[in-house]
Design goal:
With about 250 residues, the protein is an alpha/beta fold. It has two domains: about 1-85, no CATH class; about 140-249, Zincin-like. Helices cover about 40% and strands about 25% of the residues. The strands form four sheets. Strands 1-2-4-3 form a four-stranded mixed β-sheet. A four-stranded mixed β-sheet has the order 6-7-9-8. The termini are far apart.
Length: about 250
């Protein structure tokens, strides 16, 4: 019976809506349509990279109506793309944020050694062959992010009287962190690029979900009672969170 029910659900599920393209001046971006049964109106947003417009489409709204909605929002899209800024490659000479402060990526000729950074001069030194700078730096950033997030998560787990199974660090674009029902915490490695109080808040937020798997009043009381910079961090993420997605790995 189970296979038959699976097949029936598949047949009844809304068909994917083919994507489209919009030409905004000289910039061409993809338009992605996502059907959502509980949506009450068309909603438009820009993906974290600023390369695609995503339209949430309610039940019964056609593709042409959704595309027209995106086209009528051209001015909004142009403004948001401009605010995102151009991508920043991880290469020698680029400036990238580390702990919320811009640092210059500087290649050093030595083929051996670890990536290091000078917080005073705000320089990240990357040894090895020049073509390997992006990979070596990405690996170092992910490792540093995991270490700092593990320390923050341990701190809040002890303070909140909870425990977690493990921590993973990924390149999550739609959320900064997540907590599974089985006690696994997952974070975006890009938090290492944000101010320390932002990384700290996201850890507090996800660890609090180990006790409250919702965003109800008890959850927020727990977060706010342990993380004094929660409101400040939320404001930073809303205003500047998109900026760390400009870093192109």
């Amino acid at each position: 019976m189970a296979p038959a029910l699976t097949t029936l659900r598949r047949l009844l599920a809304p068909k994917p809506i083919p994507p489209a393209e919009l030409l905004l001046g000289e910039t061409r971006i993809e338009v992605i349509f996502r059907r959502h049964a509980s949506a009450r109106r068309l909603v438009l947003r820009l993906n974290p990279e600023g390369t695609a417009a995503i339209v949430t489409v309610p039940k019964g709204v056609s593709r042409s109506a959704a595309l027209d909605f995106a086209q009528r929002s051209e001015a909004w899209l142009v403004t948001r793309i401009a605010q995102r800024g151009t991508p920043i490659p991880l290469k020698a000479g680029s400036l990238i944020p580390l702990h919320g402060e811009d640092h210059e990526i500087r290649h050093i000729a030595s083929r051996r050694g670890a990536v290091t950074f000078d917080p005073v001069a705000r320089i990240i030194h990357v040894p090895g062959d020049l073509p390997h700078v992006p990979r070596r730096l990405t690996d170092w950033l992910k490792k540093a992010a995991k270490a700092e997030l593990a320390a923050a998560s341990d701190k809040y787990a002890r303070a909140m009287g909870v425990s977690f199974r493990r921590i993973t660090v990924r390149d999550q674009r739609s959320r900064w962190g997540s907590c599974s029902a089985s006690g696994e915490l997952s974070y975006s490695w890009r938090l290492i690029l944000t101010p320390p109080y932002v990384l700290d808040y996201v850890a507090a937020h996800e660890v609090a979900h180990l006790k409250h798997m919702n965003h109800g009043p008890a959850f927020w009381r727990l977060v706010l009672s342990h993380c004094r910079d929660a409101s400040r961090a939320k404001k930073w993420l809303k205003a500047h969170g998109h900026s760390v997605h400009r870093i192109s790995t």
